[in-house]
Amino acid sequence: MSFNNDITLDTSGTRRGGGGKVAAGGIGGLGLAGVLIYFLFTGQLPPLETIIGSAQQSQTSQQSQSSLEQECRSGKDANTKVECRMVAGQNSINEMWNAQLPKDTGIKHKTPGFTLFSNGVNTACGTASSQQGPFFCPGDDTIYIDVSFFNQLERLGAKNAPLAQLYILAHEWGHHIQLQTGVLQQIDHRSSGPQSSMVRSELQADCLAGAWIHHASTTVDPDTGIPFMKQPTDAELTSALEAASAVGDDHIAEISGRRANPDNFSHGSAAKRLEWLKVGIENGTYNACDTWSVPTP
Length: 297
Fold this sequence. Notes:
By secondary structure, this protein is an alpha/beta fold. The protein has helices at 34-42, 48-52, 75-80, 82-105, 152-155, 162-181, 197-216, 234-246, 249-255, 270-283; strands at residues 15-18, 30-31, 113-118, 120-123, 126-129, 135-137, 142-145. The chain has a five-stranded mixed β-sheet with strand order 1-3-7-6-2, covered by helices on one side. Strands 4-5 form a two-stranded antiparallel sheet.
């Protein structure tokens, strides 16, 4: 899914951070595949404080803010540079939810923070490394992404394609939407299994990512009056669907050479992640993404 070349990019909502070593301690944010990626690399589950959060903070200094203004000016830049693609994605997703969230829920959308980091980063949820994957920290209402994570998509059996990358950003934004609607505050981060609040949360975030895809080609850049994105092709949609399936609990277990145990699921099966992303793409609303009122989402 490509951006229209003539849109202008607003970099004010995106910052660069991190770059230092990661100190001991955990990350309490909600990630697309943080625990799963840790498991894939180490063959072990992360420490409990890594899953539910830790108060310990890294003493490493944050990388000074580098301006993206010179690098990321137009849709053409977004189509050729991954960090500029994230800037453009931030612009598009933000505009979409500015319009859609009040319409669906009566709640005014508040723009979350968005940080692109490398290696490690300090957050209000603790410290994080790139291996933990992209995540949303409710403590500072910020999405954190190390774009080098996208290289792992192929290792997980998906394509490192533009819409697959943007799906990841839109999924993390879905957790921000949950924070605004009060859903996130009700999650038991120690729960697991197909009916758990953790799985329901992750599947809803997948659906909310799909809702953005539904509106992406009609969401307009306010500076130019041009839609941010072109209509996605079937191949581009497939890349996003494959990314959702690739981070299913059962798929991660399979490629790690382990047997999948549904009772331990924290993000949902590949089939369920695919299913709920499709629900969002087809319907485009917050209300269609109700994973909470069904017996098993």
